[in-house]
Amino acid sequence: MSNNEIYTLTVNGRDHHVKDAWVGESLLYVLRERLAMPGAKGACEQGECGSCTVILDGKAVCSCLVLAASAAGREIATVEGLNPDGSLTDVQQAFIEEGAVQCGFCTPGLVVAVHKLLEENPSPAAVEVKEALSGNICRCTGYGRIFAAVDAVVAVRKSGSR
Amino acid sequence: MAVMTPTRLDDALEMAAGNPDAHLLSGGTDFMVEVNFNHRKPVDVISLARVDELRQWSEDRGAGTIFVGAGVVYAEMEKGPLSALLPALAEAARTVGSPQIRAAGTLGGNLGTCSPAGDGLPVLSALDAQVHLASTGGTRTVPFSAFMTGPKKNDRRPGEIITGVTIPTGDDFQGYSKVGVRNAMVISIASACLSVRDGRVRVALGSVGPVIIRATAAEEWVSSVPVVDASVALEFGERVATESRPIDDHRSTAAYRRHAVSVISRRLLERSNDR
Description:
The structure holds 2 protein chains of 2 kinds.
Chain A: E1 7-11, E2 14-18, H1 27-34, E3 53-56, E4 59-62, E5 75-77, H2 90-97, H3 107-120, H4 126-132, H5 144-159
Parallel strand pairs in A: 1-5
Antiparallel strand pairs in A: 1-2, 3-4, 3-5
Helix pairs in contact in A: 2-5
Chain B: E1 2-4, H1 9-18, E2 23-25, H2 31-36, E3 44-47, E4 57-60, E5 65-69, H3 74-78, H4 80-85, H5 87-94, H6 99-104, H7 107-113, H8 121-126, E6 130-135, E7 138-143, H9 144-147, E8 148-150, E9 153-154, E10 161-168, E11 173-179, E12 190-197, E13 200-206, E14 213-214, H10 216-224, H11 230-243, H12 254-274
Parallel strand pairs in B: 1-3, 2-3
Antiparallel strand pairs in B: 4-5, 5-10, 6-7, 6-10, 8-9, 11-12, 12-13, 13-14
């Protein structure tokens, strides 16, 4: 029987030891407050806003709804790990160029969700983009510029000039 | 205080036997909301997320049934081969939360929480699903109608783990409908699942009573009507609504829920007729 009060999380391919943590801490809390990875944002804490989206075992999930200790032994990827060298990804660059960032709070979650969408579906229909991003709430942009950024990435990737 | 992360069902059952008060955690989409808002202080938790045995589904063509493991996530019910076999479950899965929630939330978690608003539950009720439970002492199977005993109450005993459900296949029609305040990310204020097999109609209602309600009198009535036309569908909806037992709460009123359940039941019957 494994007791995970001290546990190890594998984030962006690196092992991180979590010590002296309370058992009820969410993955979002542990990433931000214990592992110095504040890319995922905390807002609703109930899985409605998507600003805390990370990839867990290949699936985009809300890190606020993952019990951190239960993520031991699983693969976690955050917005910090999208480009290992820390440079902007094509999605992040497109968000900037299309003006898809206003206050920026929802942006990391959206960027993770867009990467996941385009990995699974390289040329999504407009309705598929809306569906894939329906769990990420933005209160500034009205989404038009976010969808424009997705379209721009799709176009560039299709032309092979990424 | 401990979080246990077994990878084999046998190990999980041993842990549950040794700590019958431990919380059984699946996708976490209900549990973590309560923890984040300090409504629940977890002590011991057994996370079932890494138990692959619970994440399988299979079709038994000879028996005419599908087994869906407790750890199968909504995203898997929503699309692909399972959605073709159980279209009502796919329609229900499609209405659950957001893609992020559907990637984490499981059918077993829906059964464990047993909220009257659980989106998968009217499907299990209408399709006469059997719920499978296991413990170190053995296994047992309970019809869904007997499994859910009240709002957030079920027949699971301490030390037991919900392992999955068996659902009969071969319906001529099955469909699911849900009313909420908007079209996405919404908790149901009324829902219904309707299935037709060999002329026999079954309809189950969510969010309009303390448990999922089967409108058995309306089922009997409509199954005996030779031709379903617009007036029959209208009367069916009204009869279904009289069997609901909704309340006023922060999400809606009893009167609106009764109206909503009448409309969605009528439309589901019409859909079954148009197929």
